[in-house]
Design goal:
Layout lengths: L1 E4 L10 E4 L9 E11 L1 H8 L6 H4 L12 E9 L11 E5 L10 E5 L4 E3 L6 H5 L3 H13 L6 E5 L4 H12 L3 E6 L4 H6 L4 E4 L12 E6 L6 H4 L3 E9 L7 H11 L4 E3 L6 H13 L7 E6 L3 H9 L6 E5 L3
Parallel strand pairs: 8-9, 8-11, 9-10, 11-12, 12-13, 14-15
Antiparallel strand pairs: 1-2, 3-4, 3-6, 3-15, 4-5, 5-7
The structure holds NADP nicotinamide-adenine-dinucleotide phosphate.
The site of NADP nicotinamide-adenine-dinucleotide phosphate (NAP) has 28 residues, from helix 1, helix 4, helix 5 and strand 9.
Length: 321
Amino acid sequence: MKAALRLDYGSPDTVHVATYARPKPGPKQVLVRVMASTVNRTDMGVLSGKPLIFRLFTGLPRPRNPVLGTDFAGQVLEVGREVQEYGPGDRVWGFYDAGLGSHAEYLCLDVRRPMALIPSGISYEHAAASAEGAHYAYNFIKRARVGPGARVMVHGGTGAIGSAAIQLLVHYGATVVATARAAHMGMVKTLGASQVIDYEKEDFTQIDTTFEMVFDAVGKSRYAHCKKLLGPGGKYLSSELGPHGENLFLPMATCLARKPRAVFPFPSDIPASLHLMSELLASGKFNPLVDKVYSLDQAQEAYLYVATGQKVGNVVLRMST
Ligand SMILES: NC(=O)c1ccc[n+]([C@@H]2O[C@H](COP(=O)([O-])OP(=O)(O)OC[C@H]3O[C@@H](n4cnc5c(N)ncnc54)[C@H](OP(=O)(O)O)[C@@H]3O)[C@@H](O)[C@H]2O)c1
């Protein structure tokens, strides 16, 4: 089979498409013909092995699995003798942040890994694009416990996480103010934001409103600059560690000092994310933002594009010809 791989941790230049042995399913595994996947920011972490602590999960000193890819949508071809949950022909999707080897034509997956059936009528590409960013967005929102009527600032409404966060927050009844570049403001409005701030023209931390949650979905701000936007009980969350990893330590400091709180969740409940996203996709309440679609042969190009930090929503890798 064809797969996008690399032999060591490195940059997108090391990604190449080569022939790789097609896996055979073990007793608790399913063999999936991968139809679509995304190249996302988690893939960039698996590729580079950074932050270094990530290598405890992806392999030391080299990547455990040379084949890249953290999410997939495809069709079950074969099941192992102990598998009862799925059968040949099932349309399935899944995600695992330490890597699945899904940037390949075929994938063997243990059924105990996070996986779900794709709702009928949802394309493989849309399913794949509803996994990674939506999973993080959901876990951050869940941790902030925002409910109906809450006001939320989403900094970076165009990323995979930001674009999913806006839709999820609107689903939960929150009012969302988001930031984007001028060219993307209209698109962010269509996701459900009630107001969009052009972050190149206006400093969003200076606006005269308070929020229950400030969510920096692109990790470009700091708690110190955003705390004035938080009302009593308000929470600051960022998708990045921040300068010197400050977002790891701020939750403790702000908890003790009774200031507006900083929270830094470690999103782990992937099955809950897949379950929620399946429901929202099926009911038409979530529509993933897809920027570009590449073929598997163009994997390196896709990684180079995602590395620019300028993708809009999700970048899809299509496996089938
Ligand atoms: N904590 C975790 O577990 C976790 C997991 C995955 C990813 N991450 C991190 O989360 C961040 C977001 O990931 P993602 O996949 O959503 O990002 P992404 O899709 O790569 O975000 C790209 C978007 O960010 C916007 N952007 C760039 N610079 C900006 C700025 N200064 N202010 C506002 N928006 C800006 C751009 O929008 P415009 O074109 O409008 O500028 C672009 O569309 C990444 O830093 C990633 O490393 C964290």
